[in-house]
Specification:
The protein is mainly alpha-helical. It has 15 helices and 6 strands. Strand 4 (about 380) and strand 5 (about 385-390) form a beta hairpin. It is globular. About 15% of the residues are buried.
């Protein structure tokens, strides 16, 4: 890459520094494939040791956000670009001109480490700022916004599943009531009594709790209805900016880059020299900081060198991991895996045992162990293979997060609907 940049320095100019649309798309694709690859690795490890790695699987989003924060912080401080942008030879610069509000925005952001204000003046040209000047907004765009997006998507999916389950229960309620009335004797005394039981007055705290709960449900309903339109508007804005960048009508690749005043440029030879100087200065500071006798200082020096080396070579190791993950996807989705794995069908696995204190299954296999009624709308848990009524097992898994008979951990995404021939 350095030889290529040296050749580019002979023809350096505004258009040569402007990265192509395909370079930016490739950088986005690289970061988009990183999370599924790491998720697949953790899923494989968790399937072998589910009890010990269950917590890691639940906190994967937070762990990935911390990993991205540490990695991107290192690359932004050292190279002035994110990991994928540095891999493709790009850098981030601030455009502090043409509009006074952008200058005011730059002055409002403080440097995270040295506490100094950005030295921005209202000029009408591009100013290349150090990495720390745009560090806070870059970290927000690279780490915080994707994390919030994942959480909002997950919360919206949860609300959709809850609404679907509530609709399903309302549809099955008349049939279940009719079945219960047909099987159970009617008590004449209970049928003749039409007066409702006296209701006790609610306390002020209970009324406040009920009011807050109604307000929360209203906010959830509003979010469930508006979020698809907001998501569509955001994706549309990204598409418009990328299309405008492709045809040279804007210097900003995304609307967030426009709001933050960040522009992507190609790295020049002078930038490479400055990056080498910053790396050498940082390594010298680390050596001086941990210099001296003692086992503790030696361990800190070794740990610091390991972390620094791992971060430096992560831009090469992580793409290799992504390539290996995509290779496995291709292998198992093609005919090669079918030919290589044309082996006899193994016997079925043993039935998972019942845990002490867990729910017992009914003697009749057609009866749901949760509602003790003939099973309707059957569904099976992928972790254990036991079948229940779909509304019953959906509510149980939402509350407890485990199989009622084996206490094996599971989630509502692992409930499999069983369709009979009559359905």
């Amino acid at each position: 890459m350095e030889a290529h940049l040296a050749d580019m320095a002979l023809h350096e100019g505004g258009e040569m520094e402007r990265p192509s649309f395909f370079e930016l798309v490739a950088g986005d694709g690289m970061m988009a494939m990183l999370k599924p690859a790491l998720r697949h690795i953790l899923t494989v490890l968790a399937s072998r040791r589910p009890r010990s790695l269950r917590l890691l699987d639940k906190l994967f989003d937070e762990m990935f956000a911390v990993f991205m924060l540490v990695t991107q912080l290192h690359y932004l401080k050292t190279y002035g670009a994110s990991m994928s942008e540095n891999f493709y030879g790009l850098k981030r610069v601030l455009w502090l001109g043409e509009r006074t509000w952008r200058v005011s925005l730059a002055r409002a952001f403080r440097r995270v480490f040295d506490g100094k204000l950005i030295n921005a003046t209202p000029v009408t040209r591009l100013q290349e700022m150090p990495a720390n000047a745009a560090l806070s907004r870059s970290l927000f765009l690279i780490v915080v916004l994707p994390y919030l997006k994942v959480k909002l998507d997950r919360w919206h999916n949860f609300l959709k599943r809850r609404s679907g389950a509530a609709t399903l229960r309302q549809q099955e309620l008349p049939a279940r009531l009719g079945r219960d009335n047909g099987n159970r004797p009617v008590d004449p005394a209970a049928s003749s009594s039409t007066s409702p039981p006296p209701s006790s007055p609610l306390s002020a705290r209970a009324r406040l709790r009920a009011r807050l709960w109604r307000l929360l449900e209203w906010a959830n309903g509003l979010f469930e209805g508006l979020y698809p339109f907001l998501h569509f508007a955001g994706e549309g804005a990204f598409f418009v900016y990328q299309l405008a960048y492709l045809f040279g009508h804007t210097r900003y690749y995304t609307p967030f880059h426009h709001l933050a005043g960040l522009e992507l440029r190609r790295v020049t030879v002078n930038d490479l020299i400055a990056q080498r100087q910053r790396r050498a200065k940082r390594e010298l500071q680390l050596r001086l900081q941990h210099r001296g006798p003692g086992i503790l200082r030696m361990l800190r020096r070794v740990l610091s060198n390991v972390v620094h080396t791992s971060l430096e070579y992560s831009k090469f190791v992580l793409p290799i991991t992504i390539f290996f993950f995509k290779f496995l996807e291709w292998w198992y989705s093609s005919d090669h895996s079918n030919n290589a794995m044309a082996l006899p069908v193994p016997p079925p696995p043993a039935r998972p045992p019942r845990l002490n204190g867990a729910l017992r299954l009914h003697a009749d296999p057609a009866v749901c162990a949760l509602c003790l009624a003939p099973r309707t709308n059957p569904a099976v848990l992928a972790c254990s293979g036991y079948a229940f009524c779909y509304p019953c097992i959906h509510k149980h898994v939402q509350l407890h997060g485990r199989c009622p008979h084996t206490h094996m951990p599971t989630s509502v995404e692992r409930i499999i609907k069983i369709y009979s021939t009559g359905q």
